[in-house]
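Sequence decides. Consider this:

===
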Amino acid sequence: MLSEAALLTFIATLFSMMNPFGNLAIVAGMTAGRPDGEVRAIAFRCALAVAITLLVVAWGGSTVLDFFGISVDALRAAGGLIVLKIGLNMLSNNSGHTHSTTEAEDASQRESIAVVPLAIPIVAGPGTMVAVLVAGEQSPELMSKLEMSGIIVVMSALCGVLFGLAPRLSRALGASGMGVITRVMGMLLVAIACGLLAEGLKALLPGLAG
């Protein structure tokens, strides 16, 4: 089973990476003009796609790492760099870490946006996948994987509920409110990223540990 510290770190990392509150404005913008029923359907499909994607990563990620010969320490260091970049972007309230301008334009022309780009790459992007991969490699036991799977499902469901209410919540929080939430999540991610990077580098370069 996951230790209490590992459990809390995984929850905090996943919540920050998925950033359901910070992404409300993006969802509201992409679903503007659509009926409430359609927005809820998009949110449900997005949550389902996020859950399936991250569950596949959690349970099958080690096979991919073994195939490419990537060690957990190298993944931890690389993941720290990726999460650090995302956290710094969030601190400046820059949405470039979730989608590019081209992706945003493409999304505006799509009928179905639930899987691409909402689920991937906005919610379950590379940083989120790396966070799940690192946690899975650090705690490969069956019970730990089951606990992580439960957290993934709950977090995905939370995203689905919030995204279904995106138009109303976005108006209630306003741009400044969502900006504050995004920056707080960014600060948390930067702290987590520094820990990941330090652990990975110490294992790869033992001399750094003194």
User: Anything to note?
Assistant: The chain has one domain: 19-204.
